[in-house]
Amino acid sequence: MQPINEFEGARKMIPDPEKTSNLQPLAVLGLDQFEIGLLSVARYFLAAHKAPVTQSWTFATSIAIERWEEAVGLAVAHHLSKYISTVYDFRTRDFEFMDALCPKFRHVATDDEALLLSALHYMRRDQTGSARDAVAA
Question: Comparing C-alpha atoms, which of 12, 41, 23, 34 is closest to residue 108?
Answer without folding.
Answer: 23
